[in-house]
Write a structure and sequence with these properties.
Bound molecules: sulfopyruvate, magnesium ion
Number of strands: 17
Pfam families: CTP_transf_like, PEP_mutase
Protein name: phosphoenolpyruvate mutase
InterPro entries: Archaeal_FAD_synthase, Cyt_trans-like, ICL/PEPM, PEnolPyrv_PMutase_core, Pyrv/PenolPyrv_kinase-like_dom, Pyrv_kinase-like_dom_sf, Rossmann-like_a/b/a_fold
Strand content: 15-25%
Keywords: ATP-binding, Isomerase, Nucleotide-binding, Nucleotidyltransferase, Pyruvate, Transferase
GO molecular function: ATP binding; nucleotidyltransferase activity; phosphoenolpyruvate mutase activity
Length: about 425
């Protein structure tokens, strides 16, 4: 009896997959490699069904002899383990991201004269349409809220980008780059106080009130399905915080980050150039405890942000606060710095890992911007936030257009730097 191997994610199953399984099983004992949650979340999108559920479905399909996990997008490890005589795949992977994976399959099979059999891709399936349905299903509060915690457990680092309105949220939702045989996209959305305020022409001093912040969150939610982390500033008065946190939990936000400052809050990137007051450990712990008590689900996270390095209070103070905030029930810690070099952040990470390696750690590398994501991941960082880059890039672009029109006293010269009319008209679908 010959052995046949196919690999699928099996998150969205359609008749094309059944067709493939049916054909493959006619050639021998069929082993199906089901991609693990980590692989699906990294290379495709957040899985709707988890690995156990997907495996259960595949096991019960006629023609399947065995189901095994495939831990990478690449087949090599499993092929060497099971040495199949045949591998089956649709013929749609000859070009694009998967072509290298296909080549690796051919090379590996040649070691024992195995054969790759490609069957015509089932044309009449609109994967885009199915993906849209899945995306819409993923945007409701119940399925969006828990995604952040799951992503933290599945991915080496959760890549988060700011959005300050519907349009910027669409960019975060849809931006994709194919790199090193994988698809890079953003995992989560940061609703920044700086960019939400700036977009409204207001300073970042907790002047834009919660009602307005909620409107921004709603705009973002309308066009996206990714988990949302809210910049909650200081969290305000404890008496207000416990109400606000319930509202945003109910909306389907996944986490709030509150910073340990009190009084008139100014943006951290001013550092000690402006007057800012750090909260006492006791009071901030009370806020965390009250917030945790007010929550309904165990999906929502309260992340405590430590401003000790920003306010030049020293590493020991930062570490003491991290310990105290975790004891008070914080679900994660954000450490902030405005130094150009990442040294103090890395020192904090090392010390933090000694006492709380399992508590998620967040960094915002606006000033220490030379650090790659995988370096942060190796230091134990779980979430990286690009906190202001979409608005910072939009502003100079708008200013350039405005000044060019003023210089030329007409608008022909800016056409090349503007989105074509046809594209702006169709950018937002009308249904
Ligand atoms: C924000 O994005 O509003 C933040 C991060 O709080 S920072 O601007 O670096 O303080
Ligand atoms: Mg902020």
């Amino acid at each position: 009896m010959k052995t046949v191997y196919i690999a699928i994610s099996a998150d969205i199953l359609h008749h094309g997959h059944i067709n493939l399984i049916k054909k493959a099983s006619e050639y021998g004992n069929l082993i199906v490699g089901v991609l693990t949650d980590e692989v699906v979340a990294t290379y495709k999108r957040f899985p709707v069904l988890d690995y156990e559920q997907r495996t259960f479905i595949i096991k019960n399909i006629e023609g399947v002899s065995d189901v095994v996990p495939q831990y990478t997008l690449d087949y090599t490890e499993n092929l060497k383990k099971y040495r199949p005589d045949y591998v089956f795949h649709g013929d749609d992977w000859k070009k694009g991201v998967q072509s290298q994976i296909r080549q690796n399959v051919i090379n590996t099979l040649s070691e024992w004269n195995g054969e790759l059999i490609e069957i015509p891709y089932t044309e009449d399936i609109s994967i885009d349409q199915i993906n849209n349905l899945v995306k819409n299903a993923g945007s409701v509060p119940e399925s969006r809220r828990g995604k952040l915690k799951k992503l933290i457990s599945l991915k080496p680092i959760v890549r988060t980008m700011e959005a300050h309105n519907g349009l910027s949220a669409l960019v975060v939702e849809n931006a994709k780059v194919v790199k090193d045989e994988k698809i890079n996209s953003f995992d989560a959305i940061w609703v920044s106080s700086l960019t939400d305020s700036t977009a409204k022409g207001k300073p970042d001093i907790e002047l834009v009130d919660m009602t307005s912040r909620i409107n921004t969150i709603n705009e973002i939610m309308e066009v996206s399905s990714k988990p949302i982390i809210l910049d909650g500033d200081t969290g305000g008065l404890i008496e207000h915080f416990v109400f606000n946190i319930k509202t945003i939990e109910r909306m389907g936000v996944s986490a709030i980050i509150i910073e340990d400052k009190i009084g008139l809050k100014k943006n951290s990137l001013f550092g000690t150039d402006v007057e800012q007051t750090q909260d006492s450990i006791e009071n901030f712990c009370e806020k965390i405890k009250a917030g945790k008590k007010a929550l309904i689900t165990d999906e929502f996270m309260i992340i405590a942000r430590i401003e000790s390095l920003i306010l030049k209070q020293g590493m020991d103070d930062a570490i003491n606060r991290a310990k105290a905030y975790i004891n008070a029930g914080a679900d994660g810690i954000m450490i902030h710095s405005r130094e150009k070099e990442p040294d103090e952040i890395f020192e904090f990470c090392e010390k933090f890992n000694e006492f709380a390696p399992k508590v998620p750690l967040v960094v915002v590398p606006t000033s220490f911007n030379q650090v790659y994501e995988d370096e942060f991941a190796k230091k134990g960082v779980n979430i990286v936030i690009y906190a202001n880059h979409l608005i910072r890039s939009a502003y100079p672009s708008m200013m350039e257009t405005a000044t060019k029109i003023l210089e030329n006293e007409r608008c022909k010269e800016v056409d090349d730097i503007c989105l074509p009319i046809k594209e702006i008209l169709t950018l937002i679908p009308d249904e």
